[in-house]
Specification:
single chain; 6-stranded parallel β-sheet; 3-stranded antiparallel β-sheet; 15 strands; globular
């Protein structure tokens, strides 16, 4: 008798807007492809339930027999390992961080004004904190699960990789940019689209030489800024459903669905984003002819440092001078950077400084900040 292998299980860590949108996208994806069960873990179990409830309803409407199960992301590392072991995931998607990308618009404060001066890259420790904790839990379990990170993967993934954690790739930036280029090109994009793109390309770069690079087959295109102009004119949060759909397609490919050709951030611990082929448990680079890996990496390293941070070969983090100047009055012990092994401590120090700056404006900011730290925003 032939035993049918049970469908793989996905764990989604986080209950913010991206996690919600990803679950809704998965609820519309045929059950023959992708994970059979989706466990949503959040620090607030009620919020996890509020993510799963509409996803279950959507799956029922679409006649997709995929289960969405809420759970609690316990603060105790041993309990986290036990819960992950009980689920036995094939993939863990981290959508939670200690800094929400929407904080600047929703609750501006002295902290967000500091970030306006030094840039998003300064939040690297806060972006890495949850993924670091989950990755270490998987590592200590000797789990075969793959970690997919949605929180600033262009810079966080190189850090996690150098710490020996099982991060396979990121999601979000590269896949969204590729989708936007495909939409702008129309049917022409069927001829082997390849995109080399960085988190920085979500917005128009300061210099044309820093624009994203696009190939059809092995022919590089010009006018990429025009192809991305419409996407860049839309508020980021309004694009979350599109981003979520690209994430669902990538997760489906990783779990045995059709091969996906796209661009992914942070594959194999590389900085920035690269054209890639995604198939069952594999992410392989798909560079165009004539572009070497060293050239692609150098391009993305330059953009990462222009954004404010550099990850050394040993994983140590160096902040750019502009970031150092902005952080020094508030985080003198952290402004120049930190050792990879000290990432958790760096996140705690930055969190404390951010809390003080938020409270300087309005005590209500502390409520928002606590929710963000619990992975409830993003």
């Amino acid at each position: 008798m032939i035993r049918r292998q049970s469908p793989p299980t996905l764990v989604v860590v986080g209950t913010g807007s991206l996690a919600r949108a990803v679950c809704m996208a998965l609820a519309r994806t045929p059950a023959a492809q992708g994970p059979g069960q989706v466990h949503v873990l959040g620090r607030d179990s009620r919020r996890a339930s509020s993510v799963c409830c509409p996803a279950r309803a959507e799956a029922a409407l679409c006649r997709v027999p995929r289960r969405f199960l809420p759970g609690e992301l316990d603060s105790d590392d041993a309990v986290l390992r036990e819960r992950l072991a009980a689920v036995g995931p094939g993939t863990v998607l981290v959508c939670a961080s200690w800094h929400s990308p929407w904080e600047r618009d929703r609750t501006p404060s002295a902290w967000t004004r500091v970030l306006d001066r030094c840039g998003f890259a300064a939040t690297l420790p806060l972006q890495a904190a949850v993924a670091l904790r989950v990755g270490r839990a998987l590592q200590q379990m000797y789990s075969q699960a793959q970690l997919v990170n949605a929180c600033y993967p262009d810079a966080v993934n190189p850090l996690l990789y150098r710490l020996g954690l099982p991060v396979v790739c990121g999601v979000g930036n590269g896949t969204l940019i590729t989708t936007s280029v495909q939409t702008a090109l129309g049917p022409a994009a069927r001829r082997g689209l390849r995109v080399l793109a960085h988190h920085r390309h979500l917005h128009r770069p300061d210099h044309p030489d820093d624009e994203a690079r696009v190939w059809l087959g092995n022919h590089e295109l010009g006018g990429v800024g025009q192809l991305l102009a419409q996407q860049r004119g839309v508020p980021r949060e309004a694009l979350n459903p599109v981003t979520a759909h690209t994430v669902a397609r990538l997760l489906t490919a990783l779990h045995g669905g059709p091969e996906l050709r796209t661009a992914v951030p942070g594959p194999q611990g590389l900085p920035g984003g690269y054209p890639a082929r995604v198939s069952r448990r594999r992410v392989e680079l798909d560079l165009p002819h004539g572009l070497t890996l060293s050239e692609a990496v150098a391009y993305n390293e330059r953009l990462t440092f222009a954004e404010g941070v550099r990850i050394a070969p040993d994983g140590d983090v160096e902040f750019a001078p502009s970031v150092q100047d902005a952080l020094r009055p508030h985080l003198p012990q952290l402004c120049e950077g930190f050792r990879a092994k000290d990432t958790a401590r760096a996140a705690a120090q930055m969190w404390q400084a951010a809390q003080l700056l938020r409270r300087r404006e309005d005590p209500a900011d502390a409520v928002y900040a606590r929710n963000a730290a619990n992975g409830d925003e993003g």
